[in-house]
Amino acid sequence: MATLALLHTGAVVIKPINDIVRTLMPHVRIVNFMDDGIVADIFRDNGITDSVRRRLIHLGQSAAEAKVDALVITCSSISEMASTVAEASGLPVFKIDEAMAEEAVRQGAHIGVLATLPTTLEPTCRLIESKARDAGKTIVIRKELAHEAFKQLAQGNADAHDQLLRAALDELAATEDVIVLAQASMARLIEGPSFRLRVPVLASPLLGMKLVQTRLRERGLMVD
Asked: Based on the domain organization, do 61 and 110 belong to the same domain?
């Protein structure tokens, strides 16, 4: 049985992502690692500092000590650290948002990126731009930062958070070919049959874990 480590920066995504893994890969064992202070520190210091880098390396090495077969970074704010964590831990390290970025480039040239934190907005845009270069495609990204929505969620006002983000989605849908939700925690906005928008809206958890499933199969780490 393969063992998959999930590296989180917030508790809110642990259950939904674990549920996706259990549905797609029921025979894979999950080990969760979390440091819920990392995003706040990146925001405060306007970037990934040596302290944050050391903490991520430590988490990756802890995953290796737990004898996992691979690790998934579930937070876009730190996905650019994947190669650093991989080198330090000796593990295959996957990004939750990689498949989402690839799909966004495939679906449109005008891409809206919606986030509630700048720590996630900029890395997500850089990843999409990288995937566009790989595909030889010219794209235009429209960035939308709904920081007030984050403040509402931090105050426990989930409904107000969702309303603000849905309004931002409506605005982006008027001009963009496809919209990307920069944070895995935002995926619940588009869940359920009642969600309708005239353009595709992409979230990272399901797309990301489907790609991880493929990668584990390719490495012979998983059998159905």
From this structure: no
Q: Are residues 88 and 132 in the same domain?
A: no
pLDDT surpassing 90 at residue 12 = no
Of 85, 58, 59, 69, nearest in space to 4 by CA: 69
Tokens 């588009």 map to which residue? 190
pLDDT tens for 120-159 read 999 999 999 999 999 999 999 999 999 898 888 778 888 8
CA distance 48 to 42: 5
pLDDT, tens digit (0-9, with 9 covering 90-100), for 20-63: 999 999 999 999 999 999 999 999 999 999 999 999 999 999 99
Q: Which two tokens stand for residue 165?
A: 């983000």
User: 76: domain range?
Assistant: 3-96+207-218
Rg (CA), the chain: 17
Tokens of 107: 């679906």
Burial of 200 (0-12, 13-18, 19+ CB in 10 A): middle
Cβ atoms within 10 Å, residue 4: 24
- The pLDDT assigned to 190 comes to 82
Mean pLDDT of 103-131: 96
Alpha-carbon distance of 143 to 145, in angstroms, equals 7
Mean pLDDT, all residues of the chain? 93
Q: What is the number of domains present in the chain?
A: 2
Q: Which residues pair with 70 in a beta bridge?
A: 4
